[in-house]
Each structure stands twice: as C-alpha cells, then as structure tokens.
Design goal:
Elements (H helix, E strand, L loop, with lengths): L1 H15 L4 H27 L13 H4 L5 H7 L23 E3 L2 E5 L5 E4 L5 E5 L11 E4 L4 E4 L3 E2 L4 E5 L5 H9 L4 E2 L16 H6 L3 E2 L4 E5 L9 H8 L4 E6 L2 H15 L6 H5 L13 H4 L3 H9 L7 E5 H6 L1 H11 L11 E2 L8 E3 L7 E2 L14 H22 L7
Parallel strand pairs: 8-11, 8-12, 9-11, 12-13
Antiparallel strand pairs: 1-2, 2-3, 3-4, 5-6, 7-10, 14-15, 15-16
Length: 411
Amino acid sequence: MVGFRSLRCGTRGLLFGRDGRRYRYFCIMMKSCVFVMCACFVLVTMANPVDKSLLQTIPTENSLGHVPSRLELASKHNPRHGRVLQRSDYYDSIPKSPLLVENGEKKSVDNNEKAIYVDDDNQVLYLDSPEQAFTQSNRPHIDSSNNRKTSVTATKRLPQALIIGVKKGGTRALLEFLRIHPDVRAPGPEPHFFDRHYDKGLEWYRDQMPSTLEGQITIEKTPCYFVTKEVPQRIYNMSKDIKLIIVVRDPVTRAISDYTQAATKRPAMKPFEKMAFIDNTSRIVDTKWAAVKIGVYAKHLEKWLKYFPLRQIHFVNGETLISNPAGEMAKVQDFLGLKRIVTDKHFYLKDSRGFPCLKKRPGSGRPHCLRNNKGRTHPHVDPTVLNRLREFFKPFNSKFYQMTGINFRWS
C-alpha cells in the first residue's frame, strides 16, 4: 500500500511538480469541462425533445411490420415539427389479443413489449413501451394549422354535430369517411340517446362520447333521430347551435334497401309488393310502413325547421356520396368548419358492391371497405310497383326540393 502511494505521488510529482498546484488546477479544469458538457447535453435535449405524438397510431410488428424505434422517429422527423398521425390510419390493424387494464386504460401488449392503447371504440390512441407510457390527458398535441405544440387535456364532451338521418341513406359511409379526419371523433355504436335513452340524462350521454382534444369535434350518428317527433326539441334544449347532417337518398331505392335489411333478419317477411300497399287491388301505398314513412322527407323536415334554421342543417346526397365521395366530403368538411383533409386520395372506387373503399393514408395500398352487410343485393321488384311508389313520393320530393333549395333529381 505504501509502495503504491509512493508510486502515485511520484508520478503526480513528475507530471505536475512537487508543490501540487498544477495538479489542483488540472482537476479544476477537468471538472469544469465535465460540467459544461453536461449542461450542453441538457440544453440540447430540452430544445429538441422526442415528440411523443409521433408515436400515435403506429402499428405493431405483428400487424403491419417493423415498429419504428424512438431513435428512428427522431432521425426521420424534425422533433420540433412532428405531425399527428391520423387516429384511424390503422383502425383495422389493432391487435385482437386480449386487452389488459392498467390505471383505468385498456392496453394490448404484443410480443415485443410494445403497448397499443385504445379508446372505448377500439381506436388507437398511441403506442409506447409500458415503462414509458404516458396518458392521453397529458400527451402533446400538434396544432395542424401552424405546427404549434400545445399541452391540452382530453375530455369527454357533448357532440357539436349530429348525423340525424336517414336510415339506409348512407349515414354509416359518411361517418366512416369522417373518421379519417384527425379532428373528428365519434363513438362506435349509435347512442340512441334522444329517442330511446333520454331519461338517463345528459351526463350518461356525455359518457358515451369519446375523449377529445382541444380543436377536435365530437360527432355521433343515430338515423332514427330524423323521424322521431320528440327529438328536435330535445336536441334544441341541449344545444341550439348544434350542427345537423342529414343524408338523403331516392326514397324508393331507400325503401327497397330498408326492406332488404329487414328481410335478412326475418326471412318469413312478406314480399316487398305486399308490404308497400294496403292491398294489391287498390294499390294504395301503406304510409304506416316504416320503409315508406321514412322517405317522406318533407314532413319530417318541417318538425326540425321549427327549432333549427336551415343554415344549421347540411344535406348530403346519398347517391353522390357513393359516386363522388371526395366532392361530398369537401362540402361536409366546410360545413363543420374543418380543414379539407379528406380528399380523393383517400378513396378507392373499385369495391365489387359499388361502394368506395378507404385508403386510411394517402398512398396506402391497403384499402378498407365497408362491412359486408352494406350493399346487399336488392330483390327484384315489379316495375309497376316502382312506378306507383315514384308517383306517391313525387309531390313530397318536390316540396323537399323547395324547402332545402336543392334539386336531388330523383325520378
């Protein structure tokens, strides 16, 4: 031990002199360098944090291939100007493995110890490793208008817009198209609050909604609202400024589609011709049959105009929504005050049923089509029956054109 100390002191004396002053100066300089280096590292890290919002909606290796690491994300994107990936980009690729509950949130874990956090509608919120996971309420949000990052709290809010009808008009297609927009959130199932569950109160209704960030809007779809007489006043009592969307379609075609859906659930149903008329002899249209009653749009719209001005109601042409989805979606986004993000780049118009498929990301090669229960093959209906129904609907259609200021050109 004495020999080692003598050797160390001899070496220090040889390098810095016997008085030790140069040795002390050397130690001070080394400590100063280390301190400066640490301070620089902290400053660089604070100035260029890895933007966790970049980790939203990234698929797992089991679903869509390689999961980018945090280092890869930082190297491929400027962390200070990251972009929020669309929440519905990988809607169909969410792992179907059992979900675990951790701190009140549902979590799905794959083999690589990565976690996909999903909301109540199975929409992806974000992906991260469990030990680095952060809650939705404090994750950063990118303002798409100016790439400004803000810290906001996600909360459940009452809807700012409603898709109120009509049944078999194209409401599901419209909602699926709107889900592509990063500033739109919607619950999965139809809440049916204003027609079936109104007695449960607004807090129950709010709880059915997904959490939203500042700048996002909540939309829900329940087509039965349009034809239920109590609903307009109930919605007005909740919000007199709410925006309403109505998807309409040729009432004759809509009635056949309505019948087709019902017949798949009740195979013993009478043929369409017998359901449409009170009796086959007089050929008097049965206006009490729901498939016919819903198509009298003018009568239903009168009830809504008692509470809401026409400027708060937007009408979507159901036929055009299928043949030209991008054109109709441009109008819908303008009506909702949204940036036109959903464009023709999101659609793939080669579905065998005639429905447009969705490309969740522009340029994505994997389209998402509507479910198989959409676009069912309609039964053959006697042309004389169709002509009789068109005659019945014609005056109501004309009045509807006058009320809305739109000629839908239904024959």
